[in-house]
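$ ./design --mode recover --in tokens.txt
reading tokens...
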């Protein structure tokens, strides 16, 4: 049994990161959050990685913050450090230049649900469940709210935040929190399929596109078009765009150099 808090496995451009606190439903201790932030920093500069899969070990994906650790410290400075670190983690997912796919089984609650909302794509088991239940313990899920409100509509976000109820994987797909819901035994296979398709593309093009999406999404329409016209021009000047267009015209498979 691997005792590391975070397990990394790289195969054919797909980097799988496994949260490895199964006895605590992979709750986000300070140490686990710091390990994730550090790993995303390494991945950002690793041109061999074209897509990241984030999953949990044991019975569930992630149950949120490690409340035993937080309450055990009992100091305002530690609380602030915890939530600042969590915010840094979520932004490291969003700002990573390549896509991150959440592979969800079991529960994804509170900051665990926040991770799913922060990822670019999500594959869920039909047995998985999601919640932002902080209101039930007097601790409103304010930081999860940031990611959730940017992933689903206002009324669906407020429903989850105000009621704190568990929702099914089917409901999560209906409101846009996850992309695919598959039978529990097929969740890894579906994730591999999605990750493999992304990994087969040009890392350069994917990276340009993801970063442009993040920058343009909150801009007014005219500014978004100015930004993305500039990005398309930048993309056209890359090696892989020239290679891809030539391969399409000549009906052959492109040979990406990821530059």
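writing sequence...
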């Amino acid at each position: 049994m691997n005792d590391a808090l975070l397990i990394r496995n790289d195969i054919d451009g797909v980097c799988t990161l496994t949260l490895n606190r199964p006895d605590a439903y992979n709750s986000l201790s300070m140490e686990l959050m710091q390990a994730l932030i550090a790993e995303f920093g390494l991945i950002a500069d690793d041109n061999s990685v074209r897509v990241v899969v984030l999953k949990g070990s044991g019975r569930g994906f992630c149950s949120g913050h490690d409340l035993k650790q937080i309450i055990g410290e009992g100091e305002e400075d530690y609380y602030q450090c915890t939530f600042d670190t969590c915010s840094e983690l979520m932004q490291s997912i969003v700002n990573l230049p390549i896509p991150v796919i959440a592979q969800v089984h079991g529960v994804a609650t509170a900051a665990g649900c926040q991770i799913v909302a922060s990822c670019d794509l999500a594959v869920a088991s039909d047995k998985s469940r999601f919640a932002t239940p902080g209101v039930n313990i007097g601790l409103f899920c304010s930081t999860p709210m940031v990611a959730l409100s940017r992933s689903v509509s206002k009324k669906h976000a407020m429903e989850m935040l105000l009621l704190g109820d568990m929702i099914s994987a089917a409901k999560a797909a209906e409101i846009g929190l996850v992309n695919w819901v598959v039978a529990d035994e097929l969740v890894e296979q579906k994730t591999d399929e999605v990750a493999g398709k992304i990994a087969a593309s040009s890392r350069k093009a994917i990276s340009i596109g993801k970063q442009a999406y993040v920058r343009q999404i909150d801009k007014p329409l005219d500014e978004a078009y100015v930004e993305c016209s500039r990005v398309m021009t930048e993309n056209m000047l890359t090696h892989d765009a020239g290679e891809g267009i030539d391969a399409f015209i000549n009906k052959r498979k492109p040979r990406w150099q990821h530059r």
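exit 0
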